[in-house]
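Please go through the sequence line and C-alpha cell line underneath and see whether the fold suits the sequence. See right below:
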Amino acid sequence: MSGMGNMRPAVRSKAEKEASLRAGKKEEVVIKVRDLVNGFSGKIIHDHLDLDVRRGEVLGVVGGSGTGKSVLLRSIVGLNRPLEGSIKVFGQETVGMAPEEMRGLQLHWGVLFQEGALFSSMTVAQNIQVPMRRWTHMSQHLMDELAAMKLSLVGLPEDTARKYPSELSGGMKKRAGLARALSLDPELLFLDEPTAGLDPISAAQFDQLVRDLQKSLGLTVFLVTHDIDTLRAATDRIAVLVRKKITVGTIKELLRDNDPWIHEYFSGPRGHAALGDM
C-alpha cells in the first residue's frame, strides 16, 4: 500500500469531457425497433426487423420498390399497426399504446409526407397552423406570428403565408410542408421522399436546408428517400431495406457490403456519379 501515495487521479481535459458528452449523446437511442413484422394480404414486407435511430443524427432509409420504406415510417409514427414486434420512441412503447397517450407522444415529432400533403382549401399559413389549432389554445395573432417565423425558417418569403398550395411551385410546397412539420417545435422529424419530383438544384437546396435545420434545431431526422445525392449530402447513416431485413451503416461501410442490391445501388453508374471518390 506504500505506493498509493504516488497515485494521482486521472484528470480529463475540457476537450476530452466535451468529446465524451458528445459521444454519449450521439449514442442515445430515440427510436428502437425490435423484431418488427409488417405484412399485407398474406405478404410479409418486414421480417423481424431491428433498427436504432440515435439522437441528433439524420438517418436515411432506402430500398427497392416494395421493400416498405414508407410502411416503416408509418409504423413508427403510429399510422400502421405491425403484425409483431416492438417500437419504442423516446423510451415509450408505441405498439398497442392507448390513443390519448399516442397523441401526447406525437406532439414531439413532425412529419413531412410525400408531395407535402397540404390542404388545398387552406392558405399556407392556415396549413402551418393546423397542429397549433389542434394541440394548443394560442390566439390567432400568436399563430400568425409563429407561422411567419416557420416560413422564414424554411426559406420562404413572407407573402407565401397568404397563398394557396395551387399557387406554389413543387419546391415551395415541400418547404411549406416542412414548415408545418416544424409547427410545434418537434424533437424528431420524419421526411418521406422530400426531394421526389424536384429538379436537381431545388433538391440540393432542400438537402442543405434539412442539414442546416438539423444542426441549428438539434433535430433527429428519419429520412425516407431514393435519391443517392440526398444520402450523400444530408445523412449521417443509412438504413437499407433489402430481403425483408435491414442493413445500417455509413456510406463507406455500405460500399463494402457484398449484398447484390446494395452493391448495385452504391457501386453502379448512378452511385459512382453521386458518390465520386468516396
